């Protein structure tokens, strides 16, 4: 009976080692400033999404056919590529760097001040306009549109990592369960 217990302990240790490894990539992305600037706990949230994707992939795709695994991997990879491009576009257009170096998120709809002051540029305001507002996005954009921009950026980030984990987990799960080709 203790043999089963120690096997479960070993499995749990490997599981926690994976969680630590899964957290490393989002932390590295934060170091090279690829993560969303909001929320500050994005690396932890990303690790949770990675773990959930692996659990779901294991539950759904364990014992699946090569054809189905390949289909999932190809489709998820294409979606990952498209979503990554969308994420990078959003980071490029919807964020700015404060003079202090802090990265902030812009809004999608100008406030009354933004519309009146910069009617021809709203909502695509840049550094010159932000400087006149003392680098305070809430002056130029509505708070709800800043929140929507934050959510769009975070959702595209988390979905990208979910897809990446799904691709890798499906590949590994299929490879572990696939029968080796018969020897000739």
Please describe what this structure looks like.
The structure is a single chain. 71% of the residues lie in helices and 3% in strands. The protein is mainly alpha-helical and 184 residues long. The protein has one domain (2-107, 142-176). Helix 3 runs antiparallel to helix 7.
Distance between the termini: 42 Å
How many strands in all?
2
Main-sheet strand order equals 1-2
How many discrete structural domains?
1
Task: Quickly give the structural class.
Answer: mainly alpha
Shape label: elongated
Q: What is the mean predicted local confidence, pLDDT?
A: 87
Low-confidence stretches: none
Helical stretch tally: 7
Largest beta-sheet details: 2 strands, antiparallel
Beta-strand level of the residues, as a percent range? Answer: under 5%
**Which percent bin holds the helix content?**
over 70%
The helix/strand series, from N terminus to C terminus, equals HHHEEHHHH
Question: Quick summary of this structure?
Answer:
With 184 residues, the chain is mainly alpha-helical.
């Amino acid at each position: 009976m203790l043999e089963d217990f120690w096997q479960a302990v070993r499995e749990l240790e490997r599981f926690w080692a994976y969680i630590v490894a899964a957290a490393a990539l989002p932390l590295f992305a934060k170091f090279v400033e690829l993560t969303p600037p909001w929320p500050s706990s994005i690396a932890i949230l990303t690790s949770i999404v990675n773990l959930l994707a692996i659990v779901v992939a294991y539950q759904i795709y364990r014992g699946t056919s090569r054809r189905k695994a390949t289909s999932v991997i190809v489709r998820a990879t294409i979606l990952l590529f498209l979503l990554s491009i969308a994420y990078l576009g959003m980071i490029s257009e919807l964020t700015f760097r404060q003079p202090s170096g802090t990265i902030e998120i812009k809004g999608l709809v100008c406030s009354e001040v933004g519309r009146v002051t910069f009617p021809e540029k709203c909502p695509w305001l840049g550094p010159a306009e932000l400087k006149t507002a003392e680098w305070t996005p809430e002056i130029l954009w509505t708070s709800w549109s800043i929140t929507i921009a934050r959510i769009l950026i975070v959702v595209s980030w988390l979905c990208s990592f979910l897809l990446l984990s799904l691709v890798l987990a499906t590949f590994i799960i299929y490879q572990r369960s696939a029968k080796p080709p018969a020897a000739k």
